[in-house]
Amino acid sequence: MFSFKDIEVRFAGVRILDKVSGSVEPGKRVGLVGPNGAGKSTLLRVITGLESVEGGRLRRPRDYRIGYLPQGGVEGGPATCLEEALGACGDLTDIGDQLRRVSEQLSDLGPGEPVPHQLLSRYGDLEHQFAHRGGYAGESAVLKVLGGLGIGRAHWEKPTANLSGGLRMRLALTKLILVDHDLLLLDEPTNHLDVAAIEWLETYLASSPAAQIIVSHDRRFLDRLVSEIWDLEGGKLTVYRTDYSRYLEERDLRREQQRKRREMLLEKRAKLQDFIDRNRVRKDRARQVQGRIKALKKLEEIPLPPEIAQSRFRLIEAPPGDRIVAKMEGVGKAFGENRVFEGLDLAIERGDRMAVIGANGTGKSTLLRILTGREEATEGHVWTSRRNVVRSYSQDEAESLRGSRTVLEEIERAAPVEVVPQARSLLARFLFRGDDVFKPVDALSGGERSRLALAKLMVEPVNFLILDEPTNHLDQDGQAVLTEALEAYTGTLAFVSHDREFIDRLARGILVLGEGRPRLVLGNYTDYRARLDRAAEARAPQPTPLPSVTRPSAIPCKRTPGIAAKRQKELKDLEVKIITLEARLQALEAILSSPKVFQSGGLSKEIVDEGRTIRAQLPELYARWEELATDA
After folding, report:
1. Residues 451 and 491 in one domain
2. Each residue of 572-611: pLDDT tens digit?
3. Same structural domain, 352 and 412
4. Does residue 480 sit in the same domain as residue 395?
5. Same domain membership, residue 618 and residue 476
């Protein structure tokens, strides 16, 4: 079991972690939650040993293996994506390279050419090491994880330095889960994943025997994985032994109880102080006054808990526009030879609430930019109503916020007069608190600009709202404010999100990209997922086992006594033939794994045919070998 006790960390004199303690049993999955800036990433770095502490101690078993995925800062280099992923398997990669080189030498032998004993022996040794240490399964696992996390074959041969930040983060996650760890520390692992990849990761982590501490703002992701919540706020860590949804209920109940205890304490304090003030000068009450003063000093301090009920904000809605808000006919988009989607026919009506989903790279953000008019379609016709009052949010638009105005001035400038008094309260919900509201816009980080852009949306009139991943930089409270405002909004909404809870609460239609021709499915994400599951069950064929070759477990073996010399020689010759054919089969499989061979249809067909011939021969040879080896 891993544990830490009374951990203290300060930054610039501010206490970030104040005597926090916790423990993780083998196989336990924990969700670490709290407001942005509460110290969640700091605690993970402390556990890894990357962050020093002022006080406290950590205890871990000897040879305890910890894997850590940070939020960002993963650098690229000259190695390709596939090389980096395979490198997670350690020296298996080197053994695999040697095995492939020997396989290529074997494959170069002509028909009937004798196999050099030294080469065959070397191949056998390498193949034994590779197979015994899970090499074949390891390579298969690498490809499976890369595909599951949405790193397509087109990226495998690219140097990691040329990959986007999101792809590098997915590669880092790939390498992390390919290695056996006792404890996984995952800091926002879903940030750069599409919905399908998130669901794949959920399944993988749920089956992993490793203990896990997960920082995530994805409510459904936490609900499906964790059985314990660590709530970090104000430097203190509170443990809730439940899932995320029940944690929210229990947390609010505890806060309400704390609020009531504090009110009772304040009432008692006020009564004691009132008695002291009224009787301080009376000599006949001196003893009672001294008693009240002592009692007042002994009263505990109960801090005010964080707000339970968030202030509710509504979007300012412009007058309704036309019944048809936007229409697309045969719309497609390509970047050079890369066609991201085509044949899109779509009519968006007033009041529609449409989520756009699909794998990364299928054109979701591009489609939203076409709707806003910031991007032109390659083909087809796009029409939008002139009565639309469009407001949009995207990372690019957030980055365009510049200037010397302060955060507060930026909001007050955009807001109607009647909303200006609520500006600071609104900014607080988007994590601009205290002096943060006086920061110049030019001095904001990317995440802060994104939150400011969302806050501005709340105070600008709109009847057609277009949002691209609006929850990425929000903590749970900020997400709640935005979601409630959008639920109350009666205008038209089109958005991209990988947060399934967010989609379920807001969408009444799902536009699916990347699965053939774009199609619109009625309902929310849960409805769409249920349709997919039913369709998969309906078309699932009965499992048909692939032809396989069962190899005897003892080739080669010691000489079997009692067999005639002639049979002994036949047995020896048979073993050499079996080993030679097996080596040839392994070589053919290695050759087929080469993209160049795969692209050459004629050559690959010859190799496949030869492999089938060998597979057909081996069962007869195995049967004859067993007959000779067991016949005394």
Report:
1. yes
2. 677 767 776 776 776 666 555 544 444 444 445 666 677 7
3. yes
4. yes
5. no
The encoded tokens of residue 290 equal 């001294």
Give the H/E segment covering residue 354: strand 353-357
Q: In the structure, what pLDDT confidence band is assigned to residue 455 with cuts at 50, 70 and 90?
A: confident
Q: What is the domain extent for residue 602?
A: 565-630
Tens-digit pLDDT profile for residues 143-184 = 888 888 888 888 888 888 888 777 888 888 888 888 888 999
Task: At 12, list the tokens.
Answer: 């610039």
Cα-flanking dihedrals φ and ψ of residue 311, to 5°? -60, 135
Structure tokens at 410: 């930026």
Cis peptide before 78 (omega within 30 of 0): no
Q: Are residues 337 and 292 in the same domain?
A: no
pLDDT range class, residue 43, cuts 50, 70, 90: very high
pLDDT in tens, 173-232: 888 888 888 999 999 998 888 888 899 899 989 988 899 999 998 999 999 999 999 999
- Amino acid sitting at position 71: Q
Q: What pLDDT, on a 0 to 100 scale, did the predictor assign at position 552? A: 53
Q: Give domain status of residue 3, yes or no.
A: no
List the 55-59 sheet strands across, edge first: 14-24, 2-11, 55-59
Do residues 95 and 177 make contact, with C-beta atoms less than 8 angstroms apart? no
Residue 351 DSSP code: T
Whole-number Å distance between alpha carbons of 440 and 444: 7
Do the Cβ atoms of 404 and 440 come closer than 8 Å? yes
The reply to whether 597 and 456 lie within a common domain is no
Q: Which two tokens stand for residue 619?
A: 């069962």
Over the chain, what is the mean pLDDT? 82
CA atoms within 13 A of residue 589's CA, in its CB half-sphere: 12
* Beta carbons within 8 Å of 30's beta carbon, 6+ residues apart: 22, 24, 211, 212, 213, 214, 226, 228, 229, 230
CA atoms within 13 A on the CB side of 296: 17
Long-range CB pairs of 378-381, under 8 A, 24+ apart, other chains included: 378/332, 378/333, 378/334, 379/330, 379/331, 379/332, 379/342, 380/328, 380/329, 380/330, 380/331, 380/332, 380/344, 381/327, 381/328, 381/329, 381/330, 381/331
Last residue of a domain, one of 116, 146, 162: 162
Residue, of 26 and 560, whose pLDDT is higher: 26
In angstroms, rounded to a whole number, what is the distance separating the alpha carbons of residues 216 and 494?
A: 24
Give yes or no for a contact between 363 and 513, defined as CB atoms under 8 angstroms apart: yes
| pTM, full prediction | 0.71
Question: Strand 324-335's sheet: what is its strand order?
Answer: 338-349, 324-335, 379-384
Same domain, 273 and 362: no
Instruction: Give me 309's structure tokens.
Output: 């009920």
Question: pLDDT value at position 597?
Answer: 41
**CA 332 to mean position of chain CA atoms:** 29
The confidence band for 347, taking pLDDT boundaries of 50, 70 and 90, is very high
